[in-house]
C-alpha cells in the first residue's frame, strides 16, 4: 500500500473516532446507513417501464415512453425517493455529508449485479461550474469514484460538461423540465465513441436531465447510454 493510501486510511480512522458515522435514518452509530434502515429503503417493485424505469400498474412500457421516443436506452433507480432514502440524498447533496457516498456506492454495485447492469465507463451527471463552486463538490462524482473502484470500471468526469446554469427543475412540469435542460450538456471530445456509458446521478424525476446527457454522449458516438440513480421521485 502506498504511503499516501495509508495516510488517507489513518485520517479516515481518526475522523471516525472523533466524529463517528451516524445513520441518517435512525441516528445509530457505525455507518451512515445502518443495515436495519437500509433494509427498510423503499424499493421500486415491478412492474416498471422497461425504458424509463417508472412504476407501472400493468404492462411493460409507460404511456410517456410509448408516445415520446427518448435518446437514453434506459433508466433504473435503486429506491423510491422517500423516507430514509430521501434523507440520505439530502445529506449527501445539501448537508455536506460527502462520506455517505462510500456507503451508497456498494448499494449501486449490488443493484448492478442483481439486475445485470453494466457498461464500459461511469459518468457522473455534471454540475455547472458555478454550482460546483457553490457546493464544493459534485455528489454524483463522489458516488462514481467509489463505484468505479468496486466494479472496476473507468470513471470519466471531464468530457461531459454542463455548459449552462439552469434554474432548478423542482417547480417545473415534465415538458418544462425537458426544455430547461435541452442543449445544456456538451461532450468535449470523442472519448465515449463506441462505449457503453453508465450515467450516475443521485435522483431522477422525469429523466429529462439524463436524456439530455444521453443526447450529447450519443452525438459523440456513444454506443449505448443507461442512467442509474440512487433514488427515483415517482
Ligand atoms: Zn438506521
Ligand atoms: Zn417509460
Question: What can you tell me about this protein's structure?
Answer:
By secondary structure, this protein is of the alpha/beta class. The chain has a single domain, classed as Rossmann fold (3-Layer(aba) Sandwich). Helices cover 40% and strands 16% of the residues. The chain has nine helices and seven strands. The protein has helices spanning 3-18, 35-39, 63-67, 83-94, 100-114, 129-135, 139-151, 174-181, 208-219, and strands spanning 74-80, 121-124, 154-155, 160-162, 185-187, 196-204, 224-232. The strands form two sheets. A five-stranded parallel sheet has the order 1-7-6-2-3, with helices on both faces. Helix 5 (100-114) packs across helix 7 (139-151). The radius of gyration is 18 Å and the shape is globular. The model has no long low-confidence stretch (mean pLDDT 91). Residues 23, 25-26, 28, 34, 36-37 line the site of one zinc ion (ZN).
The rounded distance between the terminal residues' Cα atoms is 44 Å
**Could you tell me which ligands this complex binds, including any ions or cofactors?**
zinc ion
CATH hierarchy, class: Alpha Beta
Could you list the spans in which at least 5 consecutive residues all have pLDDT below 50?
none
**Tally the helices: what do you get?**
9
Query: How much is the average pLDDT?
Result: 91
- Total number of strands: 7
Fraction of residues in helices?
25-40%
Estimated share of beta-strand residues: 15-25%
Q: What's the gyration radius in Å?
A: 18 Å
Helix/strand-derived class?
Answer: alpha/beta
